[in-house]
Amino acid sequence: MAELQRDTRNSNDKRDSIQTNSNQEPKKPKKRSFSQRQRNMASGYMFISPFYLLFAVFGVFPILFSFYLAFFRWDGLGDMEFVGFNNFNIIFNDPLFWKSLYNTIMIGLMGTAPQLLAAILLAFALNSVLIRFKSVFRLAIFLPYVTSIVAVAIVFSVIFSNQDSGLVNTVLGVFGIDPITWTRSEWGTKAAIATMIFWRWVGYNTIIYLAGMQSIPNDLYEAAKIDGATLRQQIWHITIPMLKPFIIFTVFTATIGALQIFAEPHIFQGRAGRPEGMSVVLYLYRDAFGSNFFGTASATAIVLFFIIIIFSSLNLYFANRIGRSKKVGVK
Amino acid sequence: METNKKNVSIAKYFVYAGLILVSLASLFPFYWMFVMATNPNSAINQTPPAMIPGSNMVSNFQLVLDSIPFWGAMLNSLIVSSTITLGVLILCSLAGFAFAKLDFPGRTILFVFILGTMMIPPQLGLIPTYFIITELGWLSDLRAVIVPGLMNAFGIFWMRQYIASAVPDEIIEAARIDGCSNFRIYWNIIIPTVLPAFATLGIIVFMAIWGDYLWPLVVLQDQSMHTIQVALRSLMDDRVRDYGMILSGTFWATVPLVVIFLLFNKLFIKSITDGAVKS
Q1: Which of A37, A102, A318, B16 is 20 to 30 Å from the Cα of A126, by its Cα?
Q2: A325 exposure class (CB count in 10 Å sphere: 0-12, 13-18, 19+)
Q3: pLDDT score of A327
Q4: Are residues B82 and B217 in the same domain?
Q5: A51, A65, A122, A183: best mutation site toward chain B, by most B Cβ within 10 Å?
């Protein structure tokens, strides 16, 4: 309703200006006295305004306020107290913050690097002309993506349960390995969480690489075969370079996703959290909604923002370089 | 030549074996979820644990219903996800139409700005947004999730690209000569044309909102307002965990998604790849 009113107001404003150049489109049998151009302007702004209104309230304001809040001490209720860079001092002197950053990067690496490699191999297998039942395999591999992250975290929390009867501990028992207290072990926690990430995302990335491989024209392979290229040469000099945009996309999204990891450790180690699985977002969440330290939590959010920017640009840089050196090889 | 052929067929068997192994690893947690969901806790806690489905399907689910408002949480998730999906489709196609077909000053800059907002991690504004929701009195109110969820930069980008390529300018010009307003053009020409893009974007948005966890956890504090993700997590709170019950809840919350996926799997996979590939 408000938008409608604004629109009529807009058009009233425009009516004045239209009279000066109303001979622009004199032929059109329009009843209204303003031109098509002006009407496009009015509806253009009106059609995009919902996003900008929402973004003003739930985007711009919260972001600016985060930067403001990072320099204040605030428990959410009382007065805010300006503390300068003290909040940043607090988190940079908190070993748990550095631990959470280390965990986030470690779990991210363990969960995504082998996964993307596996996805490329799977996509290559599924793209091969020799293989039948492709759609069945594709369906099976993609199915985990349909489940929610929470469901995945719960299922794998039970699979990696601390009890001797837990599934992984039972399997380890078959090989004579003592049961592991997964939720309280440094590498056990990371391995369990990395497994969750691997299982849910490998099919998604496979499907994307597969789409990329299918977009490569067959002529390229034909030409390479005529020139006597082996299968390995075809992979290195045709498939990988042509997949470059897809690899960049998956590396980019996987990095950003891994740096924002929250649900898996929050569910695996329980609400209180433990240092072995503490991630940066979990650290922020606990600070804010567990301890009401909204100033330091905002400072953490800002640090995380810059970490994400640094890591995604580093990744983009390296992903670009890999592609480029391959391209030189082709030429 | 013959050994070469033999090598190829041996390699083929290795690839098949690998694919079958990976597929089994993909499917096993689903099977295992069902095994746990149908077994009593005593069978789960013995060594080795139960490996075949048991007979406690109903009683385990009854325990879930006693512990969390399962149906209410599913309904909340459905309300939130479908409202946001519908809203995003309409708002993003309107904005996409404006960016693709209407000329107005600042169009390019405004569009690039929207693309830029996609780079901002959602945690950056998490805390202030929480206080905005508190000020609005929307804590433990589904509006706290729905209204911010309507803001979708990717959707606008996606609809703009689709409308720019799928709707010829001539049709719009013809409609204008017939005296159609821009909104009528949107309603009668754009919407019918972009239905395939609606399916794609709808699936992507619905999946993302259905699985969202952090934000609903922060703002939907009353148990009666939990979405299914938040409710499932609370199954893990008991000191002595009943895995049969926990996985029963998880299993039955997952089944609808798997069924829908299997029914529409081609469209589903195409949507996910299109959404990724074209951006």
Answers
A1: A318
A2: exposed
A3: 43
A4: yes
A5: A51
Per-residue model confidence as pLDDT tens digits over A43-87: 889 999 999 999 999 999 999 999 999 999 998 888 888 998 999
The verdict on residue B252 lying in a domain is no
- Torsional class of B242: left (φ above 0), alpha (ψ -120 to 50), beta (otherwise): beta
pLDDT for B278 equals: 66
CB contact under 8 A, A203 and B15: no
In a domain, B265, yes or no: no
Residue B262 falls within a domain, yes or no? no
Residue B258, domain member (yes or no): no
- Tell me the residue range of the domain where B53 lies: 2-57
Give the total number of structural domains in chain A. 2
The per-residue pLDDT for B4 is: 64
The residue written with tokens 């939590």 in the block is A297
Residue B231: list chain A partners with CB under 8 A: none
Residues 32-51 of B with CB under 8 A from A: 32-33, 36, 44-49
Tell me, yes or no, whether A200 and A52 share the same domain: no
Residues B92 and B40 in one domain: no
User: Is A19 within the bounds of a domain?
Assistant: no
Indicate if B111 and B182 belong to the same structural domain. Answer: yes
User: What span, in angstroms and rounded, lies between the C-alpha atoms of A231 and A224?
Assistant: 10
Q: Are strands A72-73 and A81-82 parallel, antiparallel or unpaired?
A: antiparallel
- Regarding whether A232 and A128 lie in a shared domain, the answer is yes
3-state secondary structure of B78: helix
Among B38, B57, B76, identify where a domain stops: B57
> Strand, coil or helix: what is A82?
strand
Look at residue A144 and tell me if it is in a domain. yes
Number of domains in chain B: 2
| B125/B40 same-domain check | no
Measure B98 CA to nearest chain A CA, in Å.
Answer: 5
| Mean pLDDT over each residue of chain A, to the nearest integer | 84
- A310 HSE (CA, 13 A, CB side): 7
CB contact under 8 A, A165 and B45: yes
What ipTM score was computed for the predicted complex, to two decimals?
0.91
Weakly modelled stretches of chain B, pLDDT under 50: 1
The sign of the dihedral angle between the CA atoms of A195, A199, A204, A208 is positive
Per-residue pLDDT for A37 more than 90? no
Question: How close B91 gets to chain A, by Cα (Å)?
Answer: 7
